[in-house]
Amino acid sequence: MEERDLTALKNKYDIVGNDPALLRALRVAVTVAPADDLTVLVSGESGVGKDVIPRIIHQNSPRKSGKYFAVNCGAIAEGTVDSELFGHEKGAFTSAIETRKGYFEEADGGTLFLDEIGELPLASQAKLLRVLQSGEFIRVGSSKVLKTNVRIIAATNRNLMHLVSTGKFRADLYYRINTIQIDLPSLRERKEDIHLLFRKFVSDFTDRYSRTNIRLTEDAIALLTSYRWPGNIRQLKSVAESVSMLESQKMAPGRERVEVDAATLAQYIPVDEKNTMPVLSAQESSFSSDDREIMIKMILSLKQEVDRLKEAVYGGVQPVPVPQPALLPHERVQEPSFDEQPDEQIAEEAPQKELSLTASKDDLIRQALRKYPTKKEAADALNISERSIYRWIKKHENEF
What we know:
Blueprint: H1 3-12, H2 20-32, E1 40-43, H3 52-59, E2 68-72, H4 81-86, H5 103-106, E3 111-115, H6 122-134, E4 136-138, E5 145-147, E6 151-156, H7 160-165, H8 171-177, E7 180-183, H9 191-209, E8 213-216, H10 218-226, H11 232-247, E9 257-260, H12 262-266, H13 289-314, H14 343-348, H15 350-371, H16 375-382, H17 386-395
Parallel strand pairs: 1-6, 1-7, 2-3, 3-6, 8-9
Antiparallel strand pairs: 4-5
Helix pairs in contact: 2-3, 6-8, 9-10, 9-11, 13-15, 15-16, 16-17
């Protein structure tokens, strides 16, 4: 595909960016478009603009004069999926007051884009597979086999292979729809395109509402490109429009643009919370977030218990710390507190911390037994049962 043809394609579909992965996806879409019996799977995170690929394929294929339907499978109630896709007969269910054609029947001779295909129920997946293989389907409430000639383009933001491995997606359907796969990159992988897209969204907004344009300072551009953009292009557009609405002004003579610095822009960019980070699938990580959370809670609980034991033994008086050699200002290193450590670091240090905390607990019990004349008094001071003291002594009987 020539460079000028690619530029014309981007202009036609209002696509902004020069990222190599994006350009490759566009070239593949145009290349496979004429083979109108090939199914295509478009993959990518939510908000990357997957919906533009099916439109490019349809309008560059022999089916361009046919109908084009885009169906969000995740937005259809599970009980009505079959009715929406394959239609139903009058009286098939309570609200079926008349016969209705489904998308496969309506799109005959055209293209059907099934977005979020990973959300389809397993029963509907089996029926979809039959349509893809033979073009045959049956309306809900009917026994008559109907035929259709539809090109299917599917899209997903989920790992379908992982869904297959967990029994939530049919393997035969996955291989059937994945004849051609087109991957769209996330916005954080297109750093050079982020500012271009921002300027485009700002320009569109200010033209529509006759407001002064927005210009970012260098530090604002750096902030814009360093952010992760978990919502991808959809999120960037929302931020651009918010900045345009609240920071620009009505067009006035001599006032062509408003300059926005990093401090101002930061007010419109959400805090990059840890829980919005991309999550590895089960295939990519053997250490789940649930396991990590349990381990962290165990460590924190053990730490609290040791603190309580220290309070009981020392009676609120902390032991005198061992003097440390003085450091020059440039040699001092600020050590993070236990609570400030990242979850990942806590998880990695869990075995070592558990051992050291257990040793501290043993030391406190020894000190309590030396300090108090009876085991009951020692147990009371430590706020543990006398039976726990005896169990501990039995475990360490070689010391007594």
